[in-house]
Design brief:
Structural class of chain B: mainly alpha
Order of helices and strands of chain B: HHHHHHHHH
Number of strands of chain A: 10
Oligomer: heterodimer
Largest sheet of chain A: 5 strands, mixed
Helix content of chain A: 10-25%
Shape of chain A: globular
Strand content of chain A: 15-25%
Mean pLDDT of chain A: 86
CATH topology of the largest domain in chain A: Sulfite Oxidase, Chain A, domain 2
Strand order of the largest sheet of chain A: 2-1-10-5-6
Radius of gyration of chain B: 19 Å
Number of helices of chain A: 6
Distance between the termini of chain A: 57 Å
Strand content of chain B: under 5%
Number of strands of chain B: 0
CATH architecture of the largest domain in chain A: Alpha-Beta Complex
CATH class of the largest domain in chain A: Alpha Beta
Distance between the termini of chain B: 20 Å
Largest sheet of chain B: none
Low-confidence stretches of chain A: 1-30
Mean pLDDT of chain B: 91
Order of helices and strands of chain A: HHHEEHEEHEEHEEEE
Number of helices of chain B: 9
Structural class of chain A: alpha+beta
CATH superfamily of the largest domain in chain A: Oxidoreductase, molybdopterin-binding domain
Low-confidence stretches of chain B: 1-12
């Protein structure tokens, strides 16, 4: 019998598939260990799969969540990341994303509005003009990538803490969640959001943030690994609910603090 | 070495060579270090320091996220087990008795004897000078690899420690070199255990 495909008007099939994925029971979803071969050397040494994939994954997930709590304890809210002189800046600063540089999202500066949602008093969106008018601070800090490499850059913008106070955010909420133009997302703990060096960044190396580094706004967090520094941020959500993030949902440690 | 061996061999026939805590921490460490090295190689592959990567068939974790999960899980086993081992080694006086003194002249003499196949393994309860040096060395490499690892993991919170290793990037090289030293030790260690099987039995059964 031939398969009949029938489009349902007004329903994006891609979104439908995405939603269906969420509903699937846990074991049917893609395992972040990516197949039994993930045990690689261990399996080779013992000549068999000594640990079954699912229980290994569950154990590792529990340990990763334990490591989130340990890192939250280690985190010192007032301890500053080391800063560097201009001469230490890495040139050219590496581009890094899960897409190539020419695939970076193009955000229109006139249409842009930063959406505010969740546990905040003032939910009005912010235009770029309004954001640029906020007090500006700069930092020259080390960006550390989860892959191991690092690079020093100069970022300018306004402290996230000041902005959260300005919009009347619940500073006792658990998380700040960011949604980006390309569909990327990440979330951070509130103590990190309130850290003095956590910045809503509008400039890189004293120039308006170029497209490749996250135009029009990135969140610069020198106390977190690079993937926790979202680019092209479109929405900011203050929430008590854990929302993970693009890489976190694939198995990368959520806290990922430096 | 030979005089000491003679003195000890009288009471070693039934004496315990390795107490229970040495055997348990040894094998727990063996599992932890294999997972740490295998996952560490996969993490290295994400941003290699040198012009080579490790074949995926001998790494653990399959991709970066998986390797990081294994690495940051096994680290707890490695560190807690290592602390137990070092604490008991110091408290019971085993380190002092077994590993010291190490004399340069004895190391050289025993090294030459080992190369010519004349080094005695009659009494496993006494370490020759080369063994003492290697066991002490691998304990030190273990301490360095943990401290440099903490420096890479927490270069902001523990930035003073990271600075001791010359900064974040330098700490990665230190971590790699310490790994290389441990792997080098492991190759010699495993080969010798195979050549002298009763040493393997002693590490399992105690005697």
């Amino acid at each position: 019998m031939p398969r009949i495909r029938k489009a349902i008007p007004g329903v994006d099939p891609k979104l439908l598939i995405k939603d269906a994925g969420k509903l699937l029971p846990e074991p049917s979803r893609r395992l972040f260990l990516r197949g039994a071969a993930s045990l690689g050397a261990l399996a080779a040494l013992t000549g068999c799969d000594i640990i079954d994939e699912e229980s290994a994954e569950n154990t590792l997930r529990v340990v990763s969540q334990f490591n989130d709590r340990v890192q939250a304890l280690i985190f010192q809210p007032t301890k500053l990341a080391p800063t560097y002189p201009e001469s230490a800046i890495t040139r050219p600063f590496p581009f890094n994303a899960y897409y190539s540089e020419d695939e970076a999202p193009e955000v229109d500066k006139d249409d842009y509005k930063l959406e505010i949602a969740g546990l905040v008093d003032k939910k009005e969106s912010w235009t770029l003009e309004q954001l640029y008018a906020l007090p500006e601070v700069s930092q020259i800090t080390r960006h550390v990538c989860v892959e191991g490499w690092s690079a020093i850059g100069k970022w300018s913008g306004t402290p996230l803490k000041d902005f959260l106070v300005r919009i009347g955010a619940d500073l006792k909420a658990n998380y700040v969640y960011f949604i980006c133009a390309e569909g990327y997302s990440t979330s951070i703990d509130m103590p990190t959001a309130l850290h003095p060096q956590t910045q809503m960044t509008f400039k890189f190396a004293d120039e308006i943030l170029p497209r490749k580094y996250g135009f029009p706004m990135k969140i610069r967090i020198p106390t977190k690994l690079g993937f926790k520094n979202p680019k092209h941020v479109m929405s900011l959500v203050v929430t008590n609910d854990y929302r993970g993030g693009y890489w976190e949902n694939q198995g990368y440690n959520w806290f990922s603090g430096n | 070495m030979t005089v000491e061996t003679a003195e000890h061999s009288a009471h070693t026939a039934n004496a315990v060579i390795h107490p229970w805590w040495v055997r348990i921490t040894h094998w727990v460490n063996a599992i932890a270090i294999i997972v740490m090295i295998g996952s560490g190689w996969q993490i290295y592959n994400a941003s290699p320091l040198f012009g080579f990567t490790f074949p995926r068939s001998i790494t653990i974790g399959e991709w970066l996220a998986g390797a990081l999960l294994w690495h940051f899980a096994a680290m707890w086993i490695l560190v807690v087990n290592g602390l137990v081992y070092i604490t008991l080694g110091l408290a019971t006086g085993r380190f002092r008795r077994k590993l010291f003194p190490i004399r340069v002249s004895e190391v050289w003499a025993d090294f030459l004897a080992a190369l010519s196949g004349k080094l005695s393994h009659e009494d496993l309860s006494v370490y020759n000078a080369v063994q003492k040096l290697l066991y002490l060395g691998v304990i030190l490499a273990g301490i360095v690899i943990v401290l440099s690892g903490i420096s890479i993991w927490k270069p902001v919170q523990y930035q003073e420690l990271t600075a001791v290793f010359g900064g974040y990037d330098a700490a990665r090289y230190v971590h790699f070199i310490a790994m290389s030293a441990i792997v080098g030790f492991l190759v010699v260690h495993v080969v010798l255990a195979v050549i002298v099987p009763k040493s393997l039995r002693a590490m399992i059964l105690g005697r």
